[in-house]
Every structure is written in structure tokens, then in C-alpha cells.
Amino acid sequence: MLNSRIKLRHLQAFLEVARQRSFARAAERLAITQPGMSKTIRELEEHLGATLFERTPQGVALTQAGLTLLRHAGPAMRALEEGVAAVGDIDRGAGWLRVGALSTVESRLLPEAIRRWHGESDGHNDVGVNVVTGSSAFLLSRLRRGELDLVVGRMTEAREIRDLAFEHLYYEPLLLGVRSGHPLAGIAPLDPARLGEFPWVLPPPQTTLRQRVDSFCVRHSLTLPSQRLETLSLPISRRYTLESDAIWVAPEEALAEDRTAGRLSPLAIDLEAQGGSVGLCFNASMQPSLAVEAFCEVLREVSARLRQEDSAT
Description:
alpha/beta; five-stranded mixed β-sheet; about 45% helix
């Protein structure tokens, strides 16, 4: 039974401090004073008999007890919020899907799935889709807190998966893409040493995709050039590559349209043997809504169709 002394305000304060990593920012978000925030957290720690946060040079960090509470309190609070929202939406039938998207699915899979999902005859015109992009660490932390319904993309190498559930859809390799007419385009076999002669566009450090790039460089004794662009933004990466001699480390999906049109092409060198596992990640402690289950089924069908189309070309 829940300790009767633990109130909703205690859990709200705890989740906001965990989200902001700062008592001051959390207090500002909840419109209370910082002493009031500290008092609320202290009360919660006394009721639980455990320390939830520890101070660090960067702010505050969760203790092991805090991480344990976060795993349960985040989804529980989100379920309560959804229940309250559902009561208010009974007459309107409105709702939202909250989807985390990694760059590996931003170009084809996710846009096509959303288009198809909203266009079905028994469709979901009363359900909006909120898409959040970012690194796997960022998105999976939000999924764990119950702030997202699912995360879609390549993430099997992500350390942050831990107790989350992952469903594989397909394998997708990273490619080294260049513009049409690039000095290295069409050269086969390609000496890896030549890659260092040009700028690179690649994922930022500490991301799962960057780990694959770093492994490739180690295998071929390469040092990344100082002239490089580090970003997860596909539009910025694409435009920079099209208008320069840069080499773009990109998911196969991101190159597909420009590759067909002859604007971009992959270099004749494999960055990785098989590719990474692209799929769906869920918070197993959260019961998915019917809308989430329906959207996931569309994602499965669209991914299967796209794989068939790619294998036929």
C-alpha cells in the first residue's frame, strides 16, 4: 500500500528535479520557491527512508534509490495524467501519440507510417502525433520516465536500453555518402586512407552511430579530419554534403531518395558489415493504448514493404 504521507506534490517535485537535474530549475518550472522545493524533496526522502539525489558539479544526480523510484513513478504519473486526460476527452475522442524518432527513421519509415496511419479508412483522424527527435540517450530517458509512448530507430547498441523492451524490424547499414561528381565517387576499390583528404559529416560523440564510426576508423587506422560537421540533423547534413566535397556518414534510408535521383551516392567501402538493428522500443512497465498498438502495427507493415521495395531495386 502506498504510504499515505506521500502526496502527489512529492512525486511531481521528484520527477521535475530528476528531469531538470536542478532544484532551482525544477522550482521555477513548478512555480514554487527553491526552499519549498528542497523541503518537499526532503519530506519525500524522510517518508521513503532513502536519499534520492546527490549533488554534483553539474547539479544534482539520482542515487540508486532515486533511479529505482524514477522507473516506477514516471510511468505511474504518466498513466494518471492519461487517465485524467481521457476523462476530459471522452466527448471529443481526441488524443496524442508521443513518438521518439532517431535519425535512422526520419526520412522514410516514420513519415510514411504516419501518412498511412492517418489515411486508413478506419483511421485515427482524432489522434495527433507528436514526434520528438534527438539522441538515443535523450529519447530513451524520456521513454523510461513515461514521457514518450515509444521510440523508433536504430538503438540496439545503446547502453540506455537496459530494462526497456526492444522489437527488431530490420537491419540498416550506415553508408559513406558523397555528392555526384565527388573526387572519390565511383572509385573501386577505394583506399580508406583517401577518406582523410575531405571534410566529414558525422553524428556527435557519445551517440551509438558515432561509436560505429569510431570503430571503423580504428580498423583502418584513420584519424578524423579537424574539418568536420557533427550533427544529428538530416537536412543540415544533406545540404552541406550536396554543396561541398564532404563525406556524409548517413543511414541508408537518408540517402535513398537522392541516390535514386543521382544526387548522392555511397562510396565503395563498407563502414560496417551488417548494419544496426532498427526497431521499436517500449517501456515495459506501461500498458500501451489501443492507438499505440495500432500505430506499431502500421510501422511493422510499412517497414516490411520498404524492405521488399529495396530488395527489388
